[in-house]
Write a structure and sequence with these properties.
globular, two-stranded antiparallel sheet, mainly alpha
Length: 341
């Protein structure tokens, strides 16, 4: 068991180190025109991402109906994406373009902040998945889970985990932050434990979100087989003088026509929206790892291939809020209300 675990960690370590070096020779051979085109595209995406994420944050803050636990989690995720689009990505991209050194501590500080924000976003996505899982599969206990104090405490824990799992690398424990010849900051792990802390959280978060998505889809599929359901009501006296014990004994109410049913359908739409955004994030985050594992020679054959692949990460930051507006009628209506003020 231990030997299998160590072999798995060693395999992940090699993959992680290869991904860290995927643009190792880019700046040395790429032409100024190629770099200029890349910089323009990535900065335009950063502008789009900054505006779209600000819109999501604004509608949640301004529209009371969206200030639920789910809305707070979505707004917080947009805050992490805004940090990337407005600060981290432009700063590191301009550094690569200008071949700016910044001294030995530049990458140590910038890459630590960058990785802490990214990991915090991963845990935020896992919290969103847990929120929707409780709302759909355990609706009667959702009110306790969705308390404001618990939501804020969970977000604080995300930042503690995001920064805490990256802090050892600042002191060269298990790995270190360094700069590649092309000017890109990266993390290089030196031990199995360092590799585990570097990428373990990513697999955990995406694995949990995938599990939640399967559970929600299963719940939705089962629900389609039941056109009508019994809706719980407050305990009252029935026409025969018997208490219904908190359940409507004789009356079967269509889901779509009851308050509880409408709330359930709204939560289901939010869950479907989050599943689609999860799929989008997977499409943007996994190709680099897959290409590096299957055809790493592509990064050596084309000096700009690694930097263009970097755009996929920026796409996940920039278009996630756009997907939220496209897939959620509540957020679209809130945006229209905000624009009408």
């Amino acid at each position: 068991m231990t030997d299998h675990f160590n072999r798995t960690i060693e395999t992940l370590q090699k993959t992680f180190q290869n991904v860290s070096k995927l643009t190792n020779s880019t700046q040395l051979t790429a032409t100024p025109t190629q770099l200029s085109s890349w910089l323009v595209v990535i900065l335009l995406l950063c502008v789009v991402g900054s505006v779209s994420n600000v819109l999501v944050i604004t509608v949640v803050l301004r529209i009371r109906e969206l200030r639920t636990s789910c809305g707070v989690l979505i707004a917080h995720l947009s805050v992490t994406y805004l940090m990337q689009c407005a600060v981290i990505v432009p700063l590191t991209s301009v550094r690569i373009y200008n071949r700016f050194d910044g001294g030995p501590d530049f990458c140590r500080v910038v890459q630590f902040v960058n990785s802490a924000i990214v990991v915090t976003g991963y845990y935020n996505e896992a919290l969103l998945a847990a929120n929707r899982l409780f709302a759909i599969c355990y609706p009667y206990g959702y009110r306790v889970f969705a308390r404001r104090s618990l939501t804020l405490a969970s977000l604080a824990l995300c930042w503690i985990l995001g920064g805490g799992t990256r802090m050892p690398f600042v002191f060269n424990s298990g790995g270190f932050y360094n700069s590649l010849p092309n000017g890109q900051c990266t993390l290089t792990t030196t031990t199995n434990q360092g590799t585990f802390w570097a990428i373990g959280c990513i697999y955990f978060c995406y694995g949990f979100v995938g599990f939640a998505a399967v559970a929600i889809c299963s719940k939705s599929a089962i629900g389609k087989f039941h056109r009508r359901t019994i809706i719980p009501f407050p305990a009252t006296q029935s026409s025969g003088g018997k208490s219904n014990g908190g359940m409507a004994i004789d009356e079967r109410v269509p889901v779509s026509q009851s308050p509880a049913g409408r709330a359930y359908q709204r939560r289901m739409r939010q869950a479907q929206m989050l599943i689609m955004t999860f799929i989008w994030n997977c499409l943007c985050n996994f190709p680099i790892t897959i290409v590096n594992s299957v055809a790493p020679q592509l990064f050596r054959l084309d000096p700009m291939f690694g930097l263009w692949m970097r755009l996929l990460l920026v796409l996940s930051f920039a278009f996630h809020p756009i997907l939220v507006f496209m897939l959620s009628t509540d957020y679209r209506k809130a945006l229209k209300r905000l624009c009408s003020f």
